Amino acid sequence: MRHAIPISANASPDRSFGILPEALQRRPKSFLTLLCLLLWLPGFFTLPATDRDEARFAQASRQMVESGDYIRIRFGEEERNKKPAGIHWLQAASVQVLEAARLGNRDQIWAYRVPSLLGALLAVLATFHWGRGLVGRRAALLGAAMLASSLVLVAEVHIAKTDAALLACVTAAMGLFGAAYLRPDTFSARQAAGFWLLLGLGVLLKGPIGPMVPLLTGITLAVIDKGKPRGLAWLGALRPGWGLPLMVAAAAPWFVAIGIATEGRFFEQAVGGDMLSKIGSGEEKHWGPPGFYLLSFGIAAFPGAWIVLCALPQAWADRLNPPVRFLLAWVVPSWLVFEAVQTKLPHYTLPLFPALMLLGAAWAMDPVRQLPPRWWRWAAVATLVGVAAGLGIAAQGVSFYLLRGPMLAALLLVLVLVALVVLLLRAIWRPGGRSGGQPGGQPAMGGGWGRAGLLGALLAVPIYALVLEGVVPHLTPMWVAPRLAAAVAAAAPGLPAGQFGITGHSEPSVLFALGQDVRLLRTGGDAASFLAGGPGRVVAVGNRAEGDFRQQAATIALVPQEIASVTGFNYSRGRWVTLLLYRVAP
């Protein structure tokens, strides 16, 4: 990683990919696509809608399809003017295509996850495609595989919201930015137009986050390269004179339309409410201290995080190398911004993962790599072992807590995690392996880092299959809304959604499972009044609101009849809940 050419571009042949059939090595994009499907399809169709963001996004998109209003975003009877409509358009298009092809329908949550899956796939392929010019073909293939298997991306594929689609936009845009930075003379106007259009699409997906990453990267590179020959040649290659207006033109029509349709309420709620609360007003619940993302990186980027951590010291030492400098400028300033912002969620740093994985893969494939200090290497190994142990313990703990006993899939998961750790550590301790670039070398942690990175991505397939297909869908108490919908259908067949009310569990998944007209009631007294408000109504009352419900029912001389009950674990609030279903007694 010390050359002024793409990292590892002239490296001697590396046998780290020997575990792959030669045909797949000759067709890297086919291999990556197959790997992504193996990693992501388990649980994609079987996991119910999760609270809160996924169910809220999917329900808003379903209401958009049913109403035909593609400007305003609504959740139930409420206007939800917090984010742009780009992801809702993608989800609505996905549902309509699947319904036209008779492959799915708007009541199935996986139909709304398709844009997340396609966005993640495009991000992985873009990491390989543009990474070749930064770190070389083989390292780009490894980096893309490590990205595909990272825990946070696998999770985002299974959640119908913005972040996987945003990752695709940012990765492709930054790939084009990298081409302009390294080869400004050959960067075409067509590529520049693609860069700005991708940023415009990013704005429609998640507002300023998409443009923020290349903006901070550009500022960093401009400062670092100040005074150097052709230091700002990349800026001219990107053609901002007409590129910025193109980006604005791509996003402006919807912003004008939503401003008119909501009489300006969108900007008040999205900027004044949602965005500022995340930056530092103290209103957001997902608070975390500075350093949160660094401490949680080992989990978010599992199982490739430990290789990235080992690579960082050499990457920083080699920051004068243009490809390395660009990748670091992609990561460092935006990472610092995310650490400074008060709201902390693991997926916020996902747009920086392609650069991190490319840095890690380039180091792993470099035959003259420099190993970090011994304590740093052991810290990286401890991260791998600790996260693997944590996943195994968490699976066992959750199964015992929710199901009061062990699960076979959770037990098998522990065995696979042990195999992962043993095989990855064995790969870097291969006999005869010596650390490149150090006289005499060190047999311990010497070679096989590329093999370890690829093995980690491949062994993640059975790990995620066991978690997403064998463990999580069978944690029945977690899935309150689908069980509630089944109980209502059994106790009151054909009940219209508007005739059903609920208090004590007003989660978005309830609307997705039972319909947008479900009445979300605030108190037990409201539930009693709703039940008395018309014939044939059914109400679900949480156990915490039961006393209030009974008191109000007695006040208005209502005689409720219990017809069913559902007990489950509300993971959004971290507590158990029992919902009692009532109708008026005959």
Beta-strand content bin: 5-15%
The strand order across the widest sheet is 4-3-5-7-6
Query: pLDDT under 50 segments (min length 5)?
Result: 1-14, 431-446
Number of separate strands: 7
Q: Give the count of structural domains.
A: 3
Radius of gyration: 26 Å
Biggest pleated sheet: 5 strands, mixed
CA(first)-CA(last) distance: 79 Å
List strands and helices in order, with pairings:
Layout: H1 22-26, H2 28-40, H3 53-67, E1 74-75, E2 78-79, H4 86-100, H5 110-135, H6 137-149, H7 151-157, H8 163-182, H9 189-206, H10 209-224, H11 233-238, H12 240-261, H13 265-281, H14 292-300, H15 305-317, H16 322-340, H17 353-365, H18 374-403, H19 408-428, H20 449-471, H21 480-491, E3 500-503, H22 508-514, E4 519-520, H23 524-532, E5 538-542, H24 546-555, E6 560-570, E7 575-584
Parallel strand pairs: 3-4, 3-5
Antiparallel strand pairs: 1-2, 5-7, 6-7
Folded structure, characterized:
It contains 24 helices and 7 strands. The model is unreliable at 1-14 and 431-446 (pLDDT under 50). Helix 3 packs across helix 4 and helix 15 (305-317) packs across helix 17. It has 3 domains: 27-365, no CATH class; 374-477; 479-584, D-Maltodextrin-Binding Protein, domain 2 (3-Layer(aba) Sandwich), CATH 3.40.190. It has 586 residues and is of the alpha/beta class. The longest helix has 30 residues, at 374-403.
